[in-house]
Amino acid sequence: MIPLIKQYRFNMPRSLLFGPGSADKLDEEIRQIGCDRVMLVIDKGIRHLPAIERIAQSLTEKGIDYVVYDGVDTEPTHVHLEEGTSLFRKNDRQMLVAVGGGSSIDAAKGIGILVTHGGDIADWEGRDRLTKRIPPLIAIPTTAGTGSEISRVSVINDLRRKLKFIINSTFLCPELAIEDPLLTVSMPPSVTASSGMDALTHAIEGYISKRPPNLGFGVESLTDVTAREAIRLIAGNLRKAWANGEDLEARSNMMLGQLLAAMTFSNSGTALVHGLARPLGAYFHVPHGLANAIMLPYGMEFTLQACPEKFKDVAMAFGEFVDDLPAERAACVAIDCVRRLCQDIQIPRLGEVVNREDLEQVIETMARDGYESGTPKVNPRLPTIEQMVDLYRKAL
Ligand SMILES: [Fe+2]
Question: What is the pTM of this model?
Answer without folding.
Answer: 0.92
